[in-house]
Amino acid sequence: MRMSPSLVPAALIALALASPAHAAEPAYVGTWASDLAQCKVEQDRQEAPLVMTEKGYDQHETHCRFKSADGADNQWKVKADCTVDGSDAPYDFTLTVSGDTLTLGDETGSNDLLRCK
Predict the structure, then answer these.
(1) Which pLDDT tens digits describe the chain residue by residue (117 residues)?
(2) Does residue 11 belong to any structural domain of this protein?
(3) DSSP E strand stretches across the chain
(4) Which of 94, 87, 92 is nearest to 112 (CA)?
(5) Closest among 42, 43, 64 to 54, alpha carbons compared
(6) Fewer CB atoms near the end CB (10 Å): N or C, the chain?
(7) Which long-range contacts (CB under 8 A, 24 or more apart) does 59-68 make?
(8) Number of domains observed in the structure of the chain
């Protein structure tokens, strides 16, 4: 069956409205490092960069899955379940993004990381 050219725009609008909306990724999603040279380090090395997704992060033998990441704009309070060198531990921290800098803070202090490009 062939659609009339006048029905094509209406069909495209209906399809767009039926498709689920995709929210923008949080600003913390990306690869982050202490310095830009670290961005090139492979994940099998201890000094690997931090790879953040919307649902968690990985860095060498540390893997965290977010139970919650509450916040908006450029700051989040995160509760995560992490595995470090095979041991499980809960981890609560904050993430703040300012430009190309991610600040990861917890009860021991904070650490600034640069966005890898």
Answers:
(1) 444 444 444 433 333 444 445 568 999 999 999 999 999 999 999 999 999 999 999 999 999 999 999 998 899 999 999 999 889 999 999 999 999 999 999 999 999 999 998
(2) no
(3) 30-33, 50-53, 56-59, 62-72, 75-84, 87-98, 101-106, 109-115
(4) 94
(5) 64
(6) N
(7) 61/85, 61/86, 64/91
(8) 1
CATH of the domain at 58: 2.40.128
Map tokens 């991610």 to a residue. Answer: 102
**Position 36 in a domain:** yes
- Which tokens belong to 91? 């981890």
| Residue 66 within a domain | yes
pTM: 0.78
